[in-house]
């Protein structure tokens, strides 16, 4: 308790400097707490991708469609157990800025191809699959807007207009699906391809991409090469890859997030070390006389060095815990009000463990030089500094 009291008294000697230093620590660990969950979300989307599923896209661009006839030809290949297709709809509800994840696919194949969702009600699933103008809605989305089976829902598409030029599509909610696991996201809409293909004004008989389930994951690369070979030199050549590689390539299109975030965090903590080390050096320099007097009174060098180290660790852990706590609240708010990937954000024990390790490590690094200087200082030199 005497050591803590002494540390707090020393901190009170320069409250402004302590406040600014503590603020820099809080900001650094706030950024850390915000970035670590983001990194884990992107990693999880890559790491948990099903290795038994392949993605077949247009080789020229993932935004260009593929003919619907490709599905039958892919299904004939060895190691292919099932083939489905998907098309991005580009939907929004009520307001063009209120976007909703919506895809178009074959309702008959969707439950088998997408393991991340579960249909609890076989009756409403059958209704959806038999009604071409109905949609399947995720539980989170249905709860958010109060949708129930049988409700009519108008969706605005920024990509596809109906044959009469109207961009608003009205669907009936046929069924509501849940997530197969706790981590599954259920805030999307699934539109039947048959009705969509008949009613749209352009791009008929095309799809966005194919999802191919294979029997042997070890032969994924060979199967992908076989698929691409079938359509080689055609007007619409394909590029086949695993879901893991597709997720990575998609993220790379908008930047290498891990590299950018990692570099930003390194720069932030390097700046933190410089700021806090400079503040510590100034504080120690001003107290050289005090340390000399303490040495005369019987304080050992190790105890003085330990006091400096304790001050540094106290600063780091106080600011670090505050910053991480603020980040935890911010992440929880974003996850509660976010959609898609944002809904997976969570600051868990792994992030706190990383934060605690950085608090301790940074505190040790910052205190190393001041503690060494104070321990090596001669009593006469310290008394001279005090005069």
Which short descriptors sum up this protein?
single chain, 387 residues, alpha+beta, twelve-stranded mixed sheet, two-stranded antiparallel sheet, 14 helices, 55% helix
Write structural notes for this entry.
With 387 residues, the protein is of the alpha+beta class. The protein has 2 domains: 2-46 and 256-386, no CATH class; 65-235, no CATH class. Helices cover 55% and strands 17% of the residues. The chain contains 14 helices and 14 strands. It has helices at residues 2-12, 15-47, 70-75, 110-113, 122-130, 139-145, 193-199, 220-230, 243-253, 257-286, 288-296, 301-337, 349-376, 379-386, and strands at 53-58, 66-67, 80-88, 91-92, 99-100, 102-105, 117-118, 134-138, 152-157, 168-179, 189-192, 206-207, 209-214, 238-242. Strands 1, 3, 4, 5, 6, 7, 8, 9, 10, 11, 13 and 14 form a 12-stranded mixed β-sheet that branches. Strands 2-12 form a two-stranded antiparallel ribbon. A hairpin with a 6-residue loop joins strand 4 (91-92) and strand 5. Helix 10 runs parallel beside helix 13 (349-376), helix 11 (288-296) packs across helix 14 (379-386) and helix 12 packs antiparallel against helix 13. The longest helix has 37 residues, at 301-337. It is elongated and about 90 Å long. The two termini are 30 Å apart. It is a multi-pass membrane protein. Keywords: Cell membrane, Membrane, Transmembrane, Transmembrane helix. Residues 264-376 form the ABC3 transporter permease C-terminal domain. It is found in: Cell membrane. This is ABC3 transporter permease C-terminal domain-containing protein.
């Amino acid at each position: 308790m005497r050591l803590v009291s002494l540390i707090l008294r020393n901190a009170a000697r320069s409250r402004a400097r302590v406040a600014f230093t503590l603020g820099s620590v809080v900001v650094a660990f706030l950024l850390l707490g915000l970035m670590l969950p983001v990194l884990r979300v992107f990693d999880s989307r890559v790491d948990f991708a099903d290795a038994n599923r392949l993605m077949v896209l247009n080789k020229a661009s993932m935004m260009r469609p593929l003919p619907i006839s490709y599905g039958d030809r892919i299904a004939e290949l060895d190691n292919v157990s099932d083939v489905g297709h998907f098309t991005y709809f580009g939907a929004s509800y009520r307001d063009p800025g209120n976007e909703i994840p919506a895809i178009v696919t074959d309702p008959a194949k969707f439950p088998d191809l997408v393991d991340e969702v579960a249909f609890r009600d076989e009756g409403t699933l059958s209704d959806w699959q038999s009604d071409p103008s109905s949609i399947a809605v995720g539980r989170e989305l249905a709860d958010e807007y109060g949708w129930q089976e049988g409700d009519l829902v108008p969706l605005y598409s920024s990509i596809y207009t109906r044959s009469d030029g109207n961009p608003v599509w009205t669907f009936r909610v046929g069924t509501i699906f849940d997530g197969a696991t706790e981590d599954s996201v259920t805030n999307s809409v699934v539109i039947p391809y048959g009705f969509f293909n008949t009613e749209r004004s352009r791009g008929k008989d095309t799809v966005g991409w194919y999802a191919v389930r294979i029997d042997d994951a070890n032969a994924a690369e060979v199967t992908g090469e076989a698929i691409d070979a079938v359509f080689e030199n055609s007007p619409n050549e394909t590029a086949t890859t695993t879901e893991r590689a597709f997720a990575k390539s998609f993220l790379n299109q908008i930047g290498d997030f891990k590299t950018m975030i990692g570099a930003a965090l390194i720069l932030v903590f390097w700046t933190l070390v410089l700021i806090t080390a400079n503040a510590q050096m100034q504080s120690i320099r001003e107290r050289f006389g005090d340390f000399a007097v303490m040495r005369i009174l019987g304080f050992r060098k190790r105890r003085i060095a330990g006091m400096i180290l304790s001050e540094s660790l106290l600063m780091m852990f106080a600011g670090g815990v505050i910053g991480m706590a603020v980040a935890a609240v911010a992440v929880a708010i974003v996850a509660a009000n976010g959609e898609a990937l944002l809904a997976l954000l969570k600051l868990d024990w792994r992030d706190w463990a990383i934060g605690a390790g950085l608090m301790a490590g940074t505190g040790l690094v910052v205190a190393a030089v001041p503690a060494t200087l104070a321990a090596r200082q001669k009593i006469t030199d310290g008394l001279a500094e005090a005069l």
